[in-house]
Design brief:
- The chain is an all-alpha fold.
- The chain is about 80% helix and about 0% strand.
- The chain has 11 helices and no strands.
- It is globular.
- The relative contact order is 0.21.
Length: about 270
């Protein structure tokens, strides 16, 4: 039996996961996989890499629909989309290659603290002065650098690049929250499409589950994007920052739990050897 066949196909769970993941992606410019994957690996019993591949395929179309809604509201910089996307693809490759060589748990802790610090910066100060004044040729360079950083973290730690792209665009380049999320969504489309295609070729996409997930994720993403359109930039920024804090806290808690389990395992081995 294939791994896809081991999953329990529950249409109600799949529809809930798809709509929830799509809504979060549309509302915040990414993060749909963090909603969808726990449903797939939990109630549906899908293996982790199968859930990851399936979510990538579903998020591609959902993020694309949401990105169009954002683009209808205000112009999206094609230069930043292209440079961010190129940097993210290269960074994801480097991060995945180096994942086995870096102290992942310590890096996860540092990144969790970084997300919390950035979130507090967004929450406490209403007016944000950009860190860099990127004009002309500096804009694609800044985009590629930011994309590279997000891609490395995504490839090495499995976190969504949007958690870096959006605050990087807002704080680093002074771009408005709505436009930053729209740019992030287009980059998510590029990265998810490539990742999803790779998983599909490897057979790690549950096409049966995707038949229920995708039709629910699409209206969810559109609803999230429309909801974001009705929010003021500051309100949307606060909602995004709160989500980042939750992600940062979760990363810290997961890293500490794994480090504690590793320490207990080493003590048990030492006791057995004695």
């Amino acid at each position: 039996m294939s791994e896809a066949g081991q999953a329990v196909h529950r249409p109600a769970v799949a529809v809930t996961a798809g709509f929830g993941g799509g809504f979060v992606s549309g509302l915040l410019g990414g993060g749909g996989g963090s909603i969808m994957i726990p449903f797939l690996t939990g109630p549906m019993g899908m293996p982790q890499h199968m859930a990851h591949g399936t979510s990538l395929v579903v998020i591609t179309s959902a993020a694309g629909a949401a990105a169009i809604v954002y683009g209808l509201q205000e112009p999206i910089s094609a230069v930043l989309v292209a440079s961010l996307g190129a940097g993210a693809i290269g960074g994801a490759f480097l991060g995945a290659r180096g994942a086995a060589r870096i102290p992942a748990l310590q890096l996860r802790q540092l990144f969790g603290l970084f997300l919390i610090a950035v979130s507090l910066r967004l929450l406490i100060w209403d007016s944000v002065e950009p860190w860099f004044d990127a004009n002309g040729w500096q804009e694609p360079l800044a985009g590629a650098t930011l994309g590279l950083a997000g891609g490395v973290m995504s490839g090495a730690l499995g976190v969504g690049g949007g958690s870096i792209f959006v605050p990087g665009l807002v704080l680093g380049l002074g771009i408005g929250q709505h436009e930053a999320q729209g740019i992030s969504l287009w980059v998510v489309v590029i990265a998810s499409a490539m990742g999803g295609l790779t998983h599909f070729r490897q057979g790690t996409v549950d096409t049966e589950a995707a038949k229920w997930l995708a039709p629910a994720a699409l209206p969810g993403a559109l609803a999230g994007a429309v909801a974001a359109a009705f929010m003021g930039g500051r309100t949307l920024q606060v909602v995004f920052a709160v989500l980042l804090i939750a992600i940062g806290v979760q990363m810290l808690a997961t890293a500490r739990r794994r480090m504690r389990n590793d320490r207990l395992a080493r003590l048990a081995l030492a006791a057995d050897a004695a």
